[in-house]
Amino acid sequence: MGNICIIGPRASGKTTYLAGLCYYSEYGGSRSKYTVSPIGDESRELKEKAEDTILKGLSFDGTGHYIHTIDDLNYYSFKIEVKRGLFQPRSVIILNVRDYPGEVFENILYASAAVSVHEEFINECFMSDVDGCLLLFTEWESSKDDFYSQLMSRFLGIMDEHGRLHNYRLAVVMSKCERGEIWPGRIDPKTDLFGIYLKKTLKALKEGVPKQNLAFFALSTFGVLGSYDPRPNHDDALGSGGRASTLRVPSRWKPYNLIEPLCWLNREGQKRREKIRT
Ligand SMILES: Nc1nc2c(ncn2[C@@H]2O[C@H](COP(=O)(O)OP(=O)(O)OP(=O)(O)O)[C@@H](O)[C@H]2O)c(=O)[nH]1
Ligand SMILES: [Mg+2]
Q: Domain count of the chain?
């Protein structure tokens, strides 16, 4: 895979997702088996950060509120080897990704190109070697639908300005899907999560992005307590209105669906690169 961007509003779980991906380096779940090998010191340190934070029942601080340039942000590289079925070939994904703060994404509605961090973020998102992005949403309450749909309309406008409207993949994700109200919707998130709670956002995306470049997923870095125990493995942090939570039982930590959106982005990205070569 070329580069992908991981973006989304504040507190949508981006940093925790990357840490979970790195900590869960050997995963033998029912859907796909995978191994994650960090490349470089920054990526190796992320595994320790996951141990010191998630496993200790703590939560990451919001990313870089006071950055001056995107070079101030952590940049991670991982080699991910995925084995799906017994007879399926193994695929290797090289994931290069910067941990952006949610502010830079939310600010696309307000910021002017004169703000350099904003400009750097947009330029990096749509560079020609970026196949697409993993877009994490977290708030499913319908009151958020107006804001998310405006954000997406603006994002699609910027995609178009950069000539990427027809050659950029969007893996649209509902994060923290272990939450009881939305856990049943994880099976078909397009219909049962976006189609019910975030109708305008879904409409903006469906109208703006070619069908083959758009897919919907649900994932949870924390997961549920067990295969036969669907209680969410999280505790809400007091006073955060459900935005901040911590892992409830570290010994039963099992993320859900972390790798699937990456596999889809990788598959589609490969097709694009083959097309460019021929
Ligand atoms: N319930 C639940 N909470 C989660 C999950 N993943 C992350 N969180 C919590 O959500 C809050 C925000 O997570 P972050 O990873 O800091 O979110 P972020 O998108 O990086 O936020 P910014 O850096 O501010 O943009 C933290 O309290 C996390 O512990 C999850 O899978 N389930
Ligand atoms: Mg963050």
A: 1
Q: Which atom of ligand 1 is nearest to the CA of 16?
A: 15
Residue labelled with tokens 């290797």: 92
Q: Is 100 in the pocket of ligand 1 (CB under 6 A)?
A: no
Which residues sit with Cβ closer than 5 angstroms to ligand 2, an ion? 14-15, 63
Q: How far apart are CA 174 and CA 193, in angstroms?
A: 8
Determine whether the shortest distance from the Cβ of 73 to ligand 1 is under 6 A.
Answer: no
Phi/psi of residue 264, nearest 5 degrees: -65, -45
Measured from the Cα of 240, ligand 1's closest atom is 27
Residues in the chain: 278
| CATH number reported for the structural domain that contains residue 68 in this entry | 3.40.50.300
Full domain range(s) for residue 71: 3-277
At 239 the pLDDT is 66
Give me the average pLDDT of each 10-residue run along the chain (278 residues). 85 96 78 86 92 94 84 92 79 91 89 73 91 94 90 95 94 97 97 96 96 97 95 85 88 93 82 63
At 243 the pLDDT is 81
**Helix-helix angle 41-53:14-23, to 10 degrees:** 100
Cα(133) to ligand 1 centroid in Å equals 18
